[in-house]
Amino acid sequence: MFCHDVLLLSDEAAEEVVEQGIKDFDDFVEMDDKDITGMCDKIRIPGGMIKKGGKGGKATDLVPNRGIKIGFIAEKNLRQARFYIYHMHRIQRPFVPEDVTLAILRNFCTKRFELEKECVKADITKEDIKPFKKDGDVRKTLEDLDNLLMNKLGVGGSPLAYVTRKEVALPENVPDEGGPGLGLPTLQEELVRRTRHDGPHWDADNQAVWNIVRAFTHGGPGWNWVSKHAKKRDGRAAYMDLKKHYLGSSFVAKTVSAATTELKTIFYTGKSRNFDFETFCGS
Question: Is it the case that residue 125 has pLDDT exceeding 90?
Answer without folding.
Answer: no
